[in-house]
Amino acid sequence: MLAYVLRRLFGAIPTLFVIITLSFFLMRIAPGGPFDRERALEAKVLENLNRVFHLDRPLWEQYLYYLGNLARGDLGPSFIYRDFSVQQLLGSGLPISIQLGASALLLALLIGSVLGTIAALRQNSWIDYGVTAVATFGITVPNFVVAPLLSLIFGVWLSLLPAGGWGNGGPANMLLPVITLALPQVAIIARLIRGSMIEALRSDHVRTARAYGLPARMVVIVHAMRAACLPVVSYLGPAAAALLTGSVVVETIFGLPGIGRYFVQGALNRDYTLVMGTVIIIAVFVVVFNLIVDLLYAALDPRVRYD
Amino acid sequence: MTDIATNTPELAAGTAVKGRSLWATALMRLRRNKAAMVSLLILILYIFAGISGPMLSPHHYATVYPEYVRVPASLEAYPRAEEIIPQAESVLTRTRLQIDAIEVNGNTLHVEASSEREIDPRMTRYLERSDIFSNVRIVETSGDSRSVVMEADVERLRFLFGTDANGRDLLARILVSIRISLMIGALATGVALIIGVAWGATAGFLGGRVDNVMMRVVDVLYALPFTFFAILLVVFFGRNVVLMFVAVGAVEWLDMARIVRGQTISLRRREFVQAAEALGVSSGGILRRHIIPNTLGPVIIYMTLLIPKVILLESFLSFLGLGVQEPLTSLGVLISEGARNMRSAPYMLIYPSIALTLLLFSLNFLGDGLRDALDPRDR
Amino acid sequence: MLKSAGIRPLMAGALVMAGVFFGASTALAQVTYIRGNDANPETLDQHKTSTIAEANILRDLYEGLVIYSAKAEVIPGVAESWETSDDGLVWTFKLRDANWSNGDPVTAEDFVFSYQRILNPETGAKYANMLYVIKNGEKVNKGELEPGELGVRAVDDKTLEITLENPTPYFLQLLTHQTSYPVHKASVEEHGSDFVKPENMVTNGPYKLVSFVPNDKVVLEKNPEFREADKVSIDRVEFVPFEERATCVRRFEAGEVLSCSDLPAEQLQSLKERLGEQVHVVPYLGTYYYALNNKRDDLKDPRVRQALSMMVDREFIANEIWSGAMLPAYTFVPPGIGNYEGGGPKVEWADLDPLDKEDQAIALMKEAGYSPDNPLELEISYSAGENHKNTATAIADMWKPLGVNVTFNVRDGSAHYSHLRDSDDYEVARAGWIGDFSDPVNFLQLWESDNTGFNYSKYENPEYDKLMDQAAAESDLAKREEILRQAEALLVEDAAVISMLYYSSMSLVSPKLKGWEDNIQNAHATRWMSISE
């Protein structure tokens, strides 16, 4: 088991290397540079800046330089946020994104599985249709519509919650962003649970359990739930990686200092090092969560084994 | 639906006897699924709206009506009856004429005007230029050309869904945006389909080292942040919406390849494939004839889910201001524009949102229906 | 409240605000101003700065030789008085007794060190060129001379002498810019570029830095060592960055911020209806324009450029597309700018009747060989952004009667501006210019033929260049103004650029916030303000 985990993690190093190389060169061949803004810079000034940031060197040299720093654990200085290194920026933003993403994930799991189970147990009833419809609705409305609407309703009109801002992570500040993030996930999880729960309820071991006269609720919770978890787990891997690394829309609209914004700000402002930093973080999250999914799979489904 | 499931064994047996294909059975099952059928109908309507809607709509999607910027949605025609005379007066002030009488009879505007100087007949162009009046004619000119009587037809325009920030009819914009959004979805999905199926089937069929390498590539691409890729694609191909979504499709095929590979591996072990191999059919032939057609079920299901994903991706890019270029538009562009005008012109958000929600709803329900129909184990 | 950083309030944003409002009546309470800012500051190093968001914060942290009053008039800052030599080249500033936040006195040497630092090529200062007017400034920045040879000298601790390249009537204006603020020499020498960290930063302005978390907020607290600390009424300022302007509006309406520094233009009308007097729309030193690539075959003909410019209905764009957030412009230099009291040249066709204007424009195009039967194909390039898109769409429609078919090319900001700088294949391109200092030269120098990185129209007129050189050498303000006006008249005559709109600054200001004076610089130092119930 431990050997398996280690093998997987070592196996990810070439993957990361390819991703870093690919992103580095893709980013660099994109037109425009970090200092091309609405306010143009004097040619001489630009030259000085390029020299300060080593942009006057040949691309391969910059690449080697970047790799060298990376090997020493240095992600480089940010081109745009000049008072900070990329580590500092990501170090302060990542915990916030994780906090938001994890809360959203938990909320979505909780509500999603309850809704999905109810729908599955009352298959083809109005409750079922209602849940499916509401769940689908959650996926169809873009979050850049949901976020300002929630902020407007609860922040401005009802004055129940802050309309935006991080406020050191107070629960009141987190509520609306978390709901916005959770909404589409609730929808997907509810649908997944419903589908696999229906299948599980019809499967032999659940029928057997019922035939033994176990109480219906027990059957559902213990047997069906366990089987129904599998597709959710495999969905949650990539979803968790995406959620925990922040959402630019939610962070921008609610004004939260997570890393989702750095990713997009960095890409649009050609803040090369910042983008590379976020790319690496996201890639690591994807790799790690894929591994976690596989391990969970083994734990949940005795038929799957790793050695 | 319960009855479908319990009938499955009989149906399957019947299939064998009557030689009914998997597809015919699936179609039959699909027909019994009301939600999926309604979705299919809506989808067909959308496709029809996308293809012919822009032609049927009374306004062209790019026509600008400078006098009707951000007018709210209304069943009533613009200008409202009480607005015609003030509008005419405001237009006529530019002619510096003295207006002696002005009235509206039905759809005709009647103006008597005079001036201390000779009146230049060109001044009718002021009225003509406005969106409201057309066919301006001088009915009568006095001998000294210092007073005129003119008439003009009042153009009554209907903007059922209101107009946008440039004064373009929102209904026409929504119709053309449906066309573009569907095209984007179909295009990207089509590209993903071709690459994903070819990649997955080849990897699964050849197996061994080739499979390892090919799936390793998929793993690597999987860990590459997609948003980053999408933003870069816009930067590279932003000017050309077709190219751009071909490119989106070219990175969205990963799941498809995984699904098809899994299917292929299990199909390989089936008797008919082994029989074909024994008969000496080439690998390519087996892939084309036997493997790919048999993977289509899950592939189609996945497609109905990928189209909404691509449409939502496009709307995310629109939120970043990197959407489809003018004068074309997409549902995503309209909604992000609407979200910005949420409070001053809510109709600019509501109608495109309804259009998007309905479209995504029907794609999702159709996908569910197809899954039930094609995969008898489910439900 | 909130004295120690150890207290972690549950709902900091909302509760702190509420606490401030309800608690301010007691003498002990700290007064906090939560202030919406345009965007994140990219740096708090006054020598690397380039954005307005940074200017707003640095203005509270530092004090230059001269500063802006609440009404943005230039008033003495660290310098209590100054003299100029007869030729206008040598300026001698007498510094007053002022302290840094750590108690050190502010000396002339601090200024010498600062100006050498910004012009040192190794600093990588984005706005180093602001100080090219100082003798040898450009050469130092180019690395041709050592920083020590810059024309700045500390005569003694309290006397600073600055020598200029040319007589520069707007020199005092330049000194109000954040690039001219001093740094504390000792701490920069000790911490290097980390002197901007809250634990290291030493300031000489009314406030000092408490914390800076990008995308969250920058917190400042009153600097007790400031020379006029007793006159500063707000104890604490929190600058909250808003990339999404609508977010600031919502938080303003929810009472979470006391002012917003920019507003979404598309909401301006409804905001005015809802919030009335709290909406401030004030003329600003900025021009929104379309550069016409003079080097392109189809735009080489001034008649074509003239016709294109004439057909742009500025009133429509200003009032409908921008909802009154912009003002119609016919000349490049915005009104209200310093040293240009007589305003820009007359544009003859500006007041023409719209129909005559259209007839003339069509005739010009006909002469140039274009008509709806023989249309001119033009591409408008613009950077991503809602109103840029709507503006381009409206203009394409206005050009139709001329027989101009427009296609669009939108890029993200970085790609757009690098394209304008590095390539010459664009035709019509959107750009904007926000004045760095209040003098027409700051606008007109864009169109000098050797100003390649800025002259997006690739306008080349030797006569124009000559006039600009003359103006630079002229020390008589009235004559200089006249020369500049002639230059701008050339710009109009050649239709080198379509000056389309003048920017306005748009703010939301709560009635609780006193002392906010509208001004063309949009400079509002917190020290002039107070908060009341």
TrEMBL record, chain A:
Per its UniProt entry, which superkingdom is the organism in? Bacteria
Question: By its UniProt entry, which PROSITE patterns does this protein fall under?
Answer: ABC_TM1
All copies of the ABC transmembrane type-1 domain together span 94-297
- Alphabetic keyword roster: Cell membrane, Membrane, Transmembrane, Transmembrane helix, Transport
Instruction: Give start-end ranges for the coiled-coil region(s).
Output: none
In the record, biological process GO terms are: transmembrane transport
Q: Cellular component GO terms, alphabetically?
A: plasma membrane
Its transmembrane ranges are 9-30, 96-121, 133-160, 172-193, 239-260, 272-300
**What does the similarity note say?**
Belongs to the binding-protein-dependent transport system permease family.
Q: Quote the PANTHER family the UniProt record gives.
A: DIPEPTIDE TRANSPORT SYSTEM PERMEASE PROTEIN DPPB-RELATED
Protein's recorded name: Binding-protein-dependent transport systems inner membrane component
Q: Which organism is it from?
A: Chelativorans sp. (strain BNC1)
Q: What is the lineage of its organism?
A: Bacteria, Pseudomonadati, Pseudomonadota, Alphaproteobacteria, Hyphomicrobiales
Automatic annotation (TrEMBL), chain B:
Q: Any one Gene Ontology biological process term? A: transmembrane transport
Q: Which PROSITE patterns match?
A: ABC_TM1 (PS50928)
Keywords per UniProt: Cell inner membrane, Cell membrane, Membrane, Peptide transport, Protein transport, Transmembrane, Transmembrane helix, Transport
InterPro entries of this UniProt entry?
BP-dependent_transpt_permease, MetI-like, MetI-like_sf, OppC_N
Q: Where in the cell is it found?
A: Cell inner membrane; Cell membrane
Where does the ABC transmembrane type-1 domain start and stop, copy by copy? 178-367
Top-level taxonomic group: Bacteria
Q: Name one GO cellular component term.
A: plasma membrane
Q: How does it sit in the membrane?
A: Multi-pass membrane protein
Which residue ranges does UniProt annotate as crossing the membrane?
35-56, 180-205, 217-236, 242-260, 299-324, 344-367
Identify the CDD domains for this entry.
TM_PBP2
Keyword Phosphoprotein set for record: no
| Transmembrane helix in keyword set | yes
Could you say which protein family the record assigns here? Belongs to the binding-protein-dependent transport system permease family. OppBC subfamily.
Please give the name of this protein: Oligopeptide transport system permease protein OppC
User: Lineage in the entry?
Assistant: Bacteria, Pseudomonadati, Pseudomonadota, Alphaproteobacteria, Hyphomicrobiales
Automatic annotation (TrEMBL), chain C:
What SUPFAM superfamilies does its record include? Answer: Periplasmic binding protein-like II
Q: GO molecular function of the protein, one example?
A: peptide transmembrane transporter activity
Any Pfam family: SBP_bac_5
Look up the record and give one Gene Ontology term from the biological process aspect.
peptide transport
Which InterPro entries does the record match to this protein? Peptide/Ni-bd (IPR030678), SBP_5 (IPR039424), SBP_5_dom (IPR000914)
Residues of the signal peptide: 1-29
UniProt keywords, alphabetically: Signal, Transport
Every copy of the Solute-binding protein family domain together lies at 73-452
- Chief location category: periplasm
**GO CC terms in record:** ATP-binding cassette (ABC) transporter complex; outer membrane-bounded periplasmic space
- Protein's cellular compartments: Periplasm
- Asked if the Swiss-Prot or TrEMBL record annotates the protein with the keyword Membrane, the reply is no
Keyword hit for Nucleotidyltransferase = no
The family line of this record is: Belongs to the bacterial solute-binding protein 5 family.
The record's section on PANTHER family has: PERIPLASMIC BINDING COMPONENT OF ABC TRANSPORTER, PERIPLASMIC OLIGOPEPTIDE-BINDING PROTEIN-RELATED
Q: What is this protein called?
A: Extracellular solute-binding protein, family 5
Organism, per UniProt? Chelativorans sp. (strain BNC1)
